[in-house]
Amino acid sequence: MTTAAKSTNSVTLAEAGALYTAGRGYLAACTLGLPTIATINAMHADTEAWARGEACAARYCDVVERVRAGYADLVCVTPDRVAIGSQTSVLAGMVAASVPDGAEVVLPRGDFSSMVFPFLAQAHRGVTVRQVQLADLAASLNEKTWLVAFSLVQSATGKLADIDAIRIAARKTGTFTLCDTTQAAGWMPVDASAFDATICHSYKWLGAPRGVAFFTINSTFAANLHPVNAGWYAGDDVWASCYGPAMALATDARRFDVSPAWPAWVGAEPAIDLFRSLDLAEVRDHNVALGDALCDGLDLPRVGQAIISWPDADGRDLARLTAAGLTASGRAGRARVAFHLFNDEEDVALALAALRP
Ligand SMILES: Cc1ncc(COP(=O)(O)O)c(C=O)c1O
């Protein structure tokens, strides 16, 4: 398995800001991240090579292995614990298909559908989904709970799960943990080894193209999962696995791989490398400081989050932000803005000027 050099903290926040062609007024990393110049250039070069008839499957596979190793380093696991895919829902669906008949799964109410629907879709086998308030997640687990599945950072509200409490409760009740880090990885340090499994779609805070998703898993949980999406890429020897009739799957996490959307991985390589080069605690402090400054200006309590959202049932505040040329979003009857490393105090000032003219 390919290995990657360790994270370095070699790029400062100020240097990182200069790697983007946009960002001013872009308050939507929680919806869709921005590419750096390196990602744009890599994707251009790949498209041109493809057009010349020079794209090469084996080279794409090398890229995927480098990105797998880089992502493993980013989230503190080894590459043999990382599987690849293209969407959260498909990876969650594989876990959901492995929940034993009649077992219980506990989820936070209001979590993103790609983490919820795959489990609801198992109702025909008697799988029960209990949805509770995020704050009650840890206390809601009991010996009958097979799995607790939740986002580390909630999509609609930006709220953080109390992972220490959830892990302690899950250990006591013998419950497996599945954490979606899509709204967390890239703006805060994430340790995937703290959970039995994690899922991350990297097109938001990590700025990769859509279609690059990761699944991390430990060996105990892996022994309980069925690789229901297995194809040639899940084979022990990928290129010897293109045809049946026999199936010899990889023995490590690669057996959960789904064949990659190649060009997206070319764009993901510089994206993941950038975030491995940053001090993610510094990125978190920067993003949270901007979020807190917006809360101060809006007379909202500080929440210590990179995503700030507030009730906006009629969409008036979102319309104000949009009319001022800012890119924000609305979710679940709330206006939602996100601050990332390409934003600064001027973005906060622009948002406040639009909302409190
Ligand atoms: C927490 C979370 N997970 C996953 C996704 C994306 O899901 P999928 O990869 O199935 O498109 C989103 C998108 O907003 C999200 O907020």
TrEMBL record:
Keywords: Aminotransferase, Transferase
Single GO MF descriptor: transaminase activity
InterPro entries: Aminotrans_V_dom, PyrdxlP-dep_Trfase, PyrdxlP-dep_Trfase_major, PyrdxlP-dep_Trfase_small
Residue span, Aminotransferase class V domain: 87-299
SUPFAM superfamilies (UniProt xref): PLP-dependent transferases (SSF53383)
PANTHER family attached to this UniProt entry: CYSTEINE DESULFURASE, PYRIDOXAL PHOSPHATE (PLP)-DEPENDENT ASPARTATE AMINOTRANSFERASE SUPERFAMILY
Protein name: Aminotransferase class V-fold PLP-dependent enzyme
